[in-house]
Amino acid sequence: MFFTSDNAGPAHPKVMEALMAANQGYASGYGADAPMIEVRQMIRDIFEAPDAAVHLVATGTAANALTLATLSNPWETIFCSPMAHIHEDECNAPEFYTGGAKLTLVDTYDAKMTAPTLQAAILKEETRGVHGPQRGPVSITQATEKGTVYTVAELMALTKVAKSFGLKSHMDGARFTNALVALGCTAAEMTWKAGIDAVSFGGTKNGLLGVEACIFFDPAVSQQFELRRKRGAHLFSKHRYLSAQMHAYLTDGLWLNMARQANDACAHLIAGLEGVSDVQVLFSPQSNLVFFDAPRALHQKALAAGAQYYVMSGDPESGPDDEMLTGRLVCDWSADHGAIDRFIAHLKQ
Amino acid sequence: MFFTSDNAGPAHPKVMEALMAANQGYASGYGADAPMIEVRQMIRDIFEAPDAAVHLVATGTAANALTLATLSNPWETIFCSPMAHIHEDECNAPEFYTGGAKLTLVDTYDAKMTAPTLQAAILKEETRGVHGPQRGPVSITQATEKGTVYTVAELMALTKVAKSFGLKSHMDGARFTNALVALGCTAAEMTWKAGIDAVSFGGTKNGLLGVEACIFFDPAVSQQFELRRKRGAHLFSKHRYLSAQMHAYLTDGLWLNMARQANDACAHLIAGLEGVSDVQVLFSPQSNLVFFDAPRALHQKALAAGAQYYVMSGDPESGPDDEMLTGRLVCDWSADHGAIDRFIAHLKQ
Amino acid sequence: MFFTSDNAGPAHPKVMEALMAANQGYASGYGADAPMIEVRQMIRDIFEAPDAAVHLVATGTAANALTLATLSNPWETIFCSPMAHIHEDECNAPEFYTGGAKLTLVDTYDAKMTAPTLQAAILKEETRGVHGPQRGPVSITQATEKGTVYTVAELMALTKVAKSFGLKSHMDGARFTNALVALGCTAAEMTWKAGIDAVSFGGTKNGLLGVEACIFFDPAVSQQFELRRKRGAHLFSKHRYLSAQMHAYLTDGLWLNMARQANDACAHLIAGLEGVSDVQVLFSPQSNLVFFDAPRALHQKALAAGAQYYVMSGDPESGPDDEMLTGRLVCDWSADHGAIDRFIAHLKQ
Amino acid sequence: MFFTSDNAGPAHPKVMEALMAANQGYASGYGADAPMIEVRQMIRDIFEAPDAAVHLVATGTAANALTLATLSNPWETIFCSPMAHIHEDECNAPEFYTGGAKLTLVDTYDAKMTAPTLQAAILKEETRGVHGPQRGPVSITQATEKGTVYTVAELMALTKVAKSFGLKSHMDGARFTNALVALGCTAAEMTWKAGIDAVSFGGTKNGLLGVEACIFFDPAVSQQFELRRKRGAHLFSKHRYLSAQMHAYLTDGLWLNMARQANDACAHLIAGLEGVSDVQVLFSPQSNLVFFDAPRALHQKALAAGAQYYVMSGDPESGPDDEMLTGRLVCDWSADHGAIDRFIAHLKQ
């Protein structure tokens, strides 16, 4: 009954095998290893983007901060949701890597920005000449931090607004594949065909030890990105171990299979939650995590039974029994349906 | 005959086993995994420093830049050798992480700063009130980038100078263990007992996939370091894979054994080089890398025979046959004495 | 009928005389000029703060950004109003000078944060360990960007909240004196006695050419501030011209007199506005600027008659005649009551 | 007998008159004042550069740091002399404004870089791919910090080297006009015709209160510069007072006349020094400052007689009487030939 995070589960055995296999003899470092050439091609093929620049880093925050810095100037403001990981969970890494850019928070519905709320936020900035921050890129989390997923049409609407102001669009794809399999579209359809300029293509939350790809559909910024990565201390000397993970990830659809397993487990979990009286599922989750409201007493029961997850909105240990508190449950590829059933059973007791 | 770098060889099988073993079930992330508690204690024991702050990162540049940033202010200058990795090979990462500090280059003998050259460099700074940079920490690479090793007495002399100006001393220990086994002293003797305040304790060049420990003997800066690491995007969600590597490294003396193997191989290589006419060994190498001068023709012969290493001071492919060029040879734990013998044989033909 | 800004009017003749008088012979530079010693003492006397650190800069943005950087760490977030000059009108200068800190926007009434809204905003941050930004200083604009003034009790309530979280409080006093004379209290009462730790004490908007004092009631940070000022390129070699302005400002109550003139003119203007049908005065202005709503047609009439001021919420030139648009009117020390009367007369025609 | 610095003397009376004249009524702020349009045109005319971007700031460090930041990337290194003001006297302002670029020190003769030393320094950088800093702009101080002046041919040789590597050239012209009148060439000849891309055109050391112009011969970076200036807090609201100074400076050749007076005074001083036994004039000074060696006893005599200047290389108060110490003497436009004669007389006694 472990639902704390999709970065708390194990890496997939095939990824570990690939890591072992990569550990043979000498290999060139710093991204010049032979497997990286294959990885780059695999990603270009998957994204139907033969010219895309593709670079690997080891953390999602590095992927986001470096990619946004590449798309921004320090005197700009980046448009994102108030729940965005880049705003809430990166300890000012975007501000650090951009050299002091600002984040402008855009209103959301179901944790998703909309074309009108984005338009309104952009219109409010850069009305004061050089005095205010200048408009910078739009960052869209797909799937969102609340488990919802932008449709391709919704993405297109957002990037259309961005383009109308000459702004770039970035996708924080820490849970890219969870969104992709939820939508059932192609990687190209969910990105550059929908107007996205650059993607943080996550692997860590979906069965890798720690690898993310930064993908730029305009390769002109590739060298700049490489220099930013190096001076950010994110270029690995023994890069082969990053390449190997990503190679295994993209082989035989492992990335898609793991995301499907995570999403399916979450759907099972949601279905269970919906059958529990006193529980209210929040937002309209479609990927691998779900927020729900339940009375404190119910949280206490579940936690006492050994369930592990975050209670976000208050202390589950002290307060009125009937106060509604929000919990977050996350499923990764290794999530166990049996554990989900036991969790739901505890809630129903 | 692969002597390009000690970051080009494989990780030790025991490290890989530990990684596999760590890949079981769920684990808390972000450094809160159980093995990290053990790793912290192991390092404290090894360094005889029960209160030391210990944190892991995945690259040597991250270890150096984050540690120096923690010891510095942006208006200061860091004293280091002109060959220092932080000056030559980190693409301004120290300048980035410190928020714009400067590096002041100190004269060296055998790639080592001396107490008088350090004293002279420090005296030249901060003579202009707020106009010039203020004096900041001293960074000492042990073993040096040229393969030499500071004696404990030499380290003490440097840190004594630093302390006389109220400055902190940092050790860039990317090849810490190679130096340690060369000196045959304890980790405590080579660090805090010699006046060192903080260490980048390297593992990546000595048989790990990519882990370095940042050690502060004054734990007061621990929380500051953690925040710097997080906003630098160097905090791993699946931290267990860093912990596992370091745990295996420090178990049963693996770290010492690997460094000894690398040093022994290099000593074998140096002995061989000294028997080659036309070859001149540079500096006084004591650890796992050696610089040497040889005529272009000799480099060409070795490279043609399949040897791989950097020729630093000119193009080995074109120019006069008898022009002396400098080569760098590095041995890691997995270096093969047979390959060394073959390499020497090619040089002697 | 010039109401564009209080930084568009002339400097006071006495300030110009002081500047001329200062232009004699040689003087030490960089703040070591003799008049600066007097200025420092005058400010300490006025603020009843014998130990305060006092430094001069030439722009309000420099005063704010440098002072906040001195009170902050790069991984923190600064609490301020959404209308704060530091958020809206400094092109990310606070983010730049702090090295990448964030600003958290606090809800306001009449452009003033309240103890409960500040408390709520602070409580929402730093709930995620090292993942989110850490709580940083609170910045309070006095008088506010909308012309309202915090009472001493309101200031105390805010700083009490800040202190309860261990946070420092900064006052952006670009219009410090306008607020002071509105409240009729002492500078000490409006600052350190009310819990303020540091003040941007403005002169530029109140009759100087361009000088602000940065005042820290805890002088321990004085040297740090000086280094930040120097590396920010805000230390003037010919500092005497800053000292001379501030000296004249504080002599014979000129600063208070000019602020009173500006406030009185604005009160006269507000009284006039309140007599115009179709005009709605916004907020509860008490200092030297006033926002008001009026139909587009009325704005057009005023502008056509030669009035100069900003229309903030839409294009005064095109749109429905009866659409209400917000105008901003600012009075400086030199504001002309006759011009005000003519302006009101145009609105009433 | 005041020779401390050319930033310690008074502003020229005509500059003060212009300041008084500018203090009439209302004026648009932030560089939109009418006189700035004239100033921009005057500078374009003087430099024969009809498209140049021209912006004013108030300190020389701001001019240098902002201009270099506009020409650089944070992962680059700026080439300059070891005596460069940007290296020695700006407390890391270039590192701050560039976001962490490095400075590479180029060998000099008479405080001047030469084409070969510059070429050698550039060749040594960027030989390590993304690992080392990338090559950035060259910064040339004209006149140098030691009073020497690059000939136009020397400038051309330097910028030719820079261009051969695709690098931009910046001129730190804190004493631009002193060099210009020493050479007797045109401003165009000393800058863009000699391959210079951007100039810090100083006024502060040459009779203004505090104004420097930043001139870019390629105006494409103008908007970027403006945003950097604003977020650096160097945009003046009451900009008219900067414009007025620069306007007076450029009117009727005042700038040239003041520089000539300073240079002439210095030539008089040098001639005097050369007649003093035991005094050795250093470098080959051609502008308005001179370094000289003299025994401690002689410095003591001069200082005791009331002369004011910096002794750079040791404590004039204590040590052997016959130890040679270096002094620096600077003349500004207001330098008094009588005082110079008295100073020389004291040395000769």
Characterise the protein shown here.
The structure is a homotetramer of 349-residue chains. Chain A has 349 residues and is α/β, with parallel strands linked by helices. Chain A folds into 2 domains: 13-254, Type I PLP-dependent aspartate aminotransferase-like (Major domain) (Aspartate Aminotransferase, domain 2); 258-348, Aspartate Aminotransferase, domain 1 (Alpha-Beta Complex), CATH 3.90.1150.10. Helices cover 41% and strands 17% of the residues of chain A. Chain A contains 14 helices and 13 strands. Chain A has helices spanning 13-22, 34-46, 60-71, 85-88, 93-98, 115-124, 152-164, 176-183, 187-190, 222-231, 240-250, 254-274, 296-304, 337-348, and strands at residues 53-57, 76-80, 102-105, 108-109, 112-113, 134-141, 169-173, 198-202, 212-216, 280-281, 289-295, 310-311, 324-330. In chain A, strands 1-9-8-7-6-2-3 form a 7-stranded mixed sheet, with helices on both faces. The two termini of chain A are 16 Å apart. The relative contact order of chain A is 0.17. Chains in contact: A-B, A-C, A-D, B-C, B-D, C-D. Chains A and B meet through helix 1, helix 3, helix 5 and helix 10 of A and helix 1, helix 3, helix 5 and helix 10 of B.
